[in-house]
Description:
The complex is a heterodimer.
Chain A: H1 2-13, H2 15-53, E1 57-62, E2 66-67, E3 70-71, H3 82-91, E4 95-109, E5 114-122, H4 126-130, E6 134-137, H5 142-146, E7 151-154, H6 156-163, E8 172-175, E9 178-186, E10 201-205, H7 206-214, E11 221-226, H8 232-246, E12 257-261, H9 262-305, H10 307-315, H11 320-357, H12 365-391, H13 395-400
Parallel strand pairs in A: 5-10, 7-9
Antiparallel strand pairs in A: 1-11, 1-12, 2-3, 4-5, 4-8, 4-11, 6-9, 7-10, 8-9
Helix pairs in contact in A: 1-11, 2-9, 2-11, 2-12, 3-8, 9-11, 9-12, 11-12
Chain B: E1 11-22, E2 25-37, E3 42-46, H1 53-60, E4 68-73, E5 76-77, H2 83-93, E6 94-97, H3 109-120, H4 124-137, H5 153-165, E7 171-175, H6 183-200, E8 203-208, H7 211-214, E9 219-224, E10 227-229
Amino acid sequence: MFIVSLGLRALHRNPYRSILTSLGIVIGVLSVIVLVSIGLGAKALVLQSIQNLGPNLLIVIPGSVTDSGAQVGGGTDTTLTQEDAQAIRHDCPDVWNASGALRTAAQVQSSHANWSTVILGAEPNYLPVRDWHLARGGFFGAEEEAASARVAVLGHLVASRLFGLEDPLGKFIQINHSPFRVIGILSSKGQSPMGMNQDDMVVIPLSTLQSQIMGVTYVGVILAAAQSPDRVGDARREIRDLLLLRHHIPAGGHPDFDIQALSDIAKTANRLSLILTLLLALIASISLIVGGIGILNIMLVSVRERTREIGIRMAIGARPRDILLQFLTESAALSFFGGIAGGILGVLSILALRSFLGWPAPIPWEDSLITVAGATLLGVLFGLYPAWRASRLDPMEALRYE
Amino acid sequence: MQEDVRPGLSVRLDAVTKIYNVAGDELPAIRGVTLSFDRGEALALVGSSGSGKSTLLHLSGLLDRPTTGAVFYENSRVDSLSPSDRAILRNRSVGFVFQNFQLIPRTTALENVEMPLLYRGVPPRERRERARELLLSVGMGDRERHYSSQLSGGQQQRVAIARALVASPGLLLADEPTGNLDSRSAVSVLDLLMKAQERTRMTLVLVTHDAEVARFASRTVRVRDGLLEKS
């Protein structure tokens, strides 16, 4: 116990060197904690925006077109139809609601502005499936859908771009030079997890988009909402069986569609952000190790510089293990206090990050403790060799050392 | 802790040699010496520089090990002990006083004197009291907070003597204790050593090249070229 206080006293005698030596550990611990926090923040952000999409949503996309043996990419085929969507709606007991949808890009004009945006063709029940809401006005129903009526519901951004402060309800816009009556405005939803602005779109009846703008009969995607999040699995199986039957896919054949659950996407995103966090922590750990090497270096210098002191201590009765313990205490204390300082600075940096950048970075208390403990262990490990060298000095030679 | 009067330690060097290996050359420092220090005697080892007298002192104090031969304390062999056991023996039984004082830098006089007790595991309060007592007895009671760099040579050597005596050793080894001191400090330091020896009846070995210093001792042994000179 007395030996431990000896080590601490030696650090106290040389405060500047002690601070500079532990700076490497301070920065290492600081960066581990901050980067882990940033990684966790990114993960929370991604999961939150996926959660916003609805945890019981299933997305049916067509399979990929195989062009001369080369796959062109998922969702490029044209095998899904509005009838498929209808069948899913009616024949799958665990599906609460479903809607086909198709999108294209087009130029949209009001009387005094124009705007290039996404035209989304949707069935009347698209709104409840996505859990979207109207800010004002109404949405189209079965009659407009059946009649391929030229009515449009504007996204929040499109409404303000085309009409500014004017009230768009009842006014007309032109899509591909055809007039559409504005009947509703969606409430603002912000970015989608894929980085699309969900307010930058015009929603029109699916049949209108198919027949009057694109001249096609397929749908790009069918969105289905399960009765509840825990029935997503059942709903998915039902949709799969139904579509296999409807598309005449033989047993064991390759389906011409794909069903994705948001929970799958969440899982993937989760895994990706875990990898990101680990990668960040790894990079930060390297700076921690560099800090440890700094301690190794200084301790070696210190042992050499204090060779005569070691000789004196041995002459008056210090055993090799007393010397070992003294130097080990020094390096452990350097890295421990460095780690504590780095931890405190790390938490402060995270708080600053939160208040200035608004990044939802959590304070990783548990990881911080592990990091500080790891840094201390690192100090002990890197201090072991210099301390061992000190303890192995020959007392007579050490006394004569100049 | 009382200044316990322990009978001095008897030491025997039995046919010891010491050969240093310097850059591949073998340099014999001691060529075969058999020598005993009797309990409680004050002995002077004299000889010119390079004669091997200091090496004999280091071998007696277990700071160094003979190349051949053996060292006995009270008839038990000690040179073959492990480094750790030799450290314990040095701590318990041997006090050193060096020519260049060998105080630990950036450490106060009091801390220096406490050091041997610290390695013996004496609790802080007792350690401190005992160290103060010793500093007082060498006339340095008012300098306990001074660092070695703030003390004169004579003062440093007094602190070093206090440190050598603090653990009540049976054997006090002084290697040219007055070599770096002016004549007035030298006399008072020698006086201090002799008085301590008389008081505690420990065995004192004084290495010197100075006949004046050797006169303080009751017996003188001359060393020349690594061998004892018959007197």
